[in-house]
Amino acid sequence: MSDIIYNLFDREVHPPYLSPDYKSTILRAPSKPLIPLKQSLSELSGPIFGDFNLGEFDHDLTKNAIVNGEPLGERIVVHGKVMNENGKPIPNTLIEIWQANAAGRYVHKVDQHAAPLDPNFLGAGRCMTDAEGNYKFYTIKPGAYPWGNHFNAWRPNHIHFSLFGANITNRLVTQMYFPGDPLLQYDPIFLGVPPKGRELLISSFDLSITEPSFALGYRFDFVLRGNNATPFEKQ
Question: Do residues 166 and 49 touch, judged by C-beta distance below 8 A?
């Protein structure tokens, strides 16, 4: 178990529950002060998900939904490490990702964006961290897409991440952005995160993981507790 730092919510890093420019928070933000619950040993010592049955291509979104050809778009490799507040790796963490395709459309009936679906790209995958807390996904760089938050609103390129703890009820959700994206300065979701935490949500280009003639590499690490914890959507 790690040496615990009892700083569960750094308001200089994590987004507030109410961010008026992000309109859906007006409806879902709590109207009364929250009542914090004391954490037990099970919450403070995780996550250790244990054995889990993963498919051969669960971590490879360029292969896990092929029907009649390769998925369209720029292939990328996303890798990193899951750590505690002291930089120690956290093994056996179940990580899930979901994202839009290269044209900026999700495989979901609610998504009515007038962009093409890719029959060879599902936009979802999962993997486990290894003994050193490392993970790696192959995927297609997601496209930007319009959303109805305000006039001419576009979401930056991003990938959703979900990390599970000791059981399926312990879950942290966040988004990874790409360096140099011009839409970041206009996005209320990204700007809803305090300035101290925004850089923690932007991946870094990583030539060392880039695969010649195949895929560009990006690194995105997760810190689960402490002052440098990755901003998550739920605390």
Answer: yes
Find the catalytic residue in 105, 158, 177, 225: 158
Catalytic status, residue 79: no
Torsion sign, CA atoms 54, 136, 217, 175: positive
Whether 138 is catalytic: no
Name the phi and psi angles at 141, rounded to 5: -60, 125
Residues 98-141 have pLDDT tens digits of 999 999 999 999 998 999 999 999 999 999 999 999 999 999 99
Q: Is 155 a catalytic residue?
A: yes
CA-based nearest residue to 227, from 5, 4, 41: 5
Q: In Å, what is the CA distance from 102 to each residue of 111, 140, 161?
A: 14, 7, 18
Q: 135, 145, 177, 218: which is the annotated catalytic residue?
A: 145
Which sign does the torsion angle of CA 136, 138, 144, 146 carry? negative
The reported pTM is 0.83
> Cα separations (Å) of 216 from 83, 153, 166, 205, 232?
24, 28, 32, 8, 26
Which residue in this structure is represented by tokens 């899930």? 96
Whether residue 158 lies in the annotated active site: yes
| Residue 44, pLDDT score | 55
Q: Which of 14, 105, 106, 138 is catalytic?
A: 106
Give the integer Cα–Cα distance in Å for 63 and 74. 14
Task: Note if 218 is an active site residue.
Answer: no
